[in-house]
Design the sequence.
């Protein structure tokens, strides 16, 4: 298994992407630590992982709070000895659907601030622990809007670009200590509740089926489809594993060819 004997912390482990990644990590042998503000969601995912034969623990912590993150990592190190993988997948509370010309400044800035704040907090906290180990992988997730903006996304694309910039800086700061930093860039998974809701709503507005709209939405990709949650999770497994040991300061393209590098 690709992640045998690895200890992985996933912030936002109760969400759609976080839970998919947690299941994939556990299936590949990792002990997954699910962290978030709402324990019942985390405990449900942990139970599912345990029933499938994997290892999962939960912890209530706020990825926007420096001390909360530090305390959780300290507890994790005391329990299992290392933090081998850190993946921040919390929501950024972005608001879309209007031009930034018509959006209040605070509404526009919120996802940008949240992205910079939480990825700085979790990335540097993991980096301090991993420097003592001389090993580790820090992962992040962004979207195609980081590179190709489109109208009415508010601050979301700028937040994604900021996350990618933080990942590059962390990679520079931590590389000499054997720590890799990799960002995954997706075009959105149609089986995630958030995107599914948007597609369903827009399909009704356009008077077409949900399936037709997804096909139209994916028409700009080379594979003519969008990446499923399991595919995002599988890419995360590969980037977190020793099979990707030469990859750092990189953005992994999992957009099904919507973007070309």
Sequence:
């Amino acid at each position: 298994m690709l992640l045998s004997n690895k200890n992985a912390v996933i912030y936002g482990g109760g969400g759609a992407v976080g839970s998919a990644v947690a299941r994939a990590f556990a299936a590949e042998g990792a002990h997954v630590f699910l962290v978030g503000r709402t324990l019942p969601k985390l405990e449900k995912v942990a139970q599912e992982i345990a029933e499938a034969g994997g290892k999962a623990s939960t912890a209530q912590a706020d990825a926007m709070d420096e001390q909360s993150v530090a305390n959780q990592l300290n507890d994790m190190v005391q329990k299992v000895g290392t933090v081998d993988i850190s993946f921040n997948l919390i929501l950024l509370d972005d608001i879309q659907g209007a031009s930034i010309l018509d959006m209040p400044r605070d509404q526009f800035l919120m996802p940008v601030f949240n992205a910079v704040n939480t990825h700085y907090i979790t990335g540097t906290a993991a980096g301090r622990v991993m420097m003592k180990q001389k090993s580790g992988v820090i992962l992040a997730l962004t979207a195609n809007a980081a590179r190709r903006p489109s109208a009415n996304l508010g601050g979301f694309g700028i937040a994604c670009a900021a996350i990618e910039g933080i990942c590059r800086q962390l990679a520079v700061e931590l590389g000499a200590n054997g720590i890799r930093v990799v960002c995954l860039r997706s075009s959105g998974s149609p089986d995630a509740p958030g995107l599914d809701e948007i597609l369903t709503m827009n399909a009704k507005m356009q008077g077409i089926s949900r399936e037709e709209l997804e096909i139209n939405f994916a028409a700009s990709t080379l594979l003519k489809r969008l990446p499923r949650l399991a595919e995002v999770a599988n890419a995360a497994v590969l980037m977190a594993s020793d099979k990707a040991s030469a990859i750092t300061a990189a953005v992994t393209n999992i957009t099904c060819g919507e973007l070309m590098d």
